[in-house]
Amino acid sequence: MNLYEALPLGTGAGYWFCLIIIGVLLDWWLGDPRWLPHPIVLMGKTIGFLNKKLNRGKHKKAKGFVLLFLVLGLTSGILFFIQILLYQVHIALYLLFNLYLIMTSLAAKTLSVEVEKVKNGLMSGNLQEARTKVGYLVGRDTSGLSGKEIIRATVETTAENTIDGVLAPLFYLFLGLLFPVTWLNPGILVMLYKATNTMDSMVGYIQEPYKDFGYAAAKFDDLLNFIPARIGSIFMLLSGIALGFNIKEGYRIYKRDRTRHKSPNSGHPESVVAGLLGIQLGGNNQYFGEVLEKPTIGDPTTEMVPFDIRETISIMYGSEILVVILSIIIAFIIFSL
């Protein structure tokens, strides 16, 4: 039996599982190399173009649903066409393309590098540089943030992106193992998640001009993150044990404050981090010239310091490692049976 006969289009779950684990390792090692085209960049340009064309006039909420369906339809259709084409040319190209999709769907290394730049700016006393760097990571106005507010913004976005950029993509990659021989394979499923997440980050605001237009993207992103945010937060808590944090305090704050956020999902990872680090997150932020009032999360047991940024990254990596280890154990048991 040759390789083509052994490896049908879509591949078996075992092949996909190996690709996922290799993709995680490559993300830890390489992150997102600048020389490598990134699918999220193309998604962002497409969303930006459609936003200019659709986000005007009347019926903005309906047009927002059009945006959602167009982006998801284009993403799945184009990727599946490329998969079929590469499979017909050579199976190695097909496997490499899917490995590329997996690797670019994960953002652990990139996130850690970018938030370290914020921490370094704070540590060197260059407040303006820290404001600029954190401005690349968050949607709020960062021009007038104090040092403590910069730390808070960075810790919050790192906690949220532990779900959005790491654990949720892993969830959808592993979920895709249930559909290994259909168009809804892990590579396409995780890219549909990333497309939704990108739409939410670009248009999913409650301020104008996105209030109605971004409604569909924001709600669908909330739906897709509902399960990953809750499962992922448990893994974040468990990583606190290995990292030596106060797990009891982490769980106490998580149980008390996980719903104290305007987002149905963001409060889960933020409350875990706040509890484990003994700091207080949340509070008011400014978006597009409007002050958005948010409840606080956690207790100010300790004063926030730049090192809290690195500790949050440790929680991110710790939770991802736990997910990978557990998945390998489960895979070993299933394949053994």
List the helices and strands and how they pair.
Blueprint (H helix, E strand, L loop, with lengths): L2 H4 L6 H18 L8 H16 L5 H30 L1 H15 L2 H16 L3 H9 L11 H29 L10 H18 L11 H29 L3 H11 L9 H11 L3 E2 L2 E3 L2 E3 L3 E2 L9 H30 L1
Antiparallel strand pairs: 1-4, 2-3
Structure report:
- The chain is an all-alpha fold and 337 residues long.
- The chain has one domain.
- Helix content is 70%, strand content 3%.
- The protein is built from 13 helices and four strands.
- It has helices spanning 3-6, 13-30, 39-54, 60-89, 91-105, 108-123, 127-135, 147-175, 186-203, 215-243, 247-257, 267-277, 307-336, and strands spanning 281-282, 285-287, 290-292, 296-297.
- Strand 2 and strand 3 form a beta hairpin.
- It is globular and about 60 Å long.
Query: Residue-averaged pLDDT, rounded?
Result: 90
Helix content: over 70%
Radius of gyration: 20 Å
Tell me the count of domains.
1
Structural class assignment:
mainly alpha
Compute the number of strand runs.
4
Count of helical stretches: 13
Written as H for each helix and E for each strand, in order along the chain, the element string is HHHHHHHHHHHHEEEEH
Describe the structure concisely.
With 337 residues, the protein is an all-alpha fold. It is built from 13 helices and 4 strands. It has one domain.
Task: Summarize this structure as a short list of keywords or feature phrases.
4 strands, two-stranded antiparallel sheet, mainly alpha, disordered N terminus, 337 residues, 13 helices, single chain
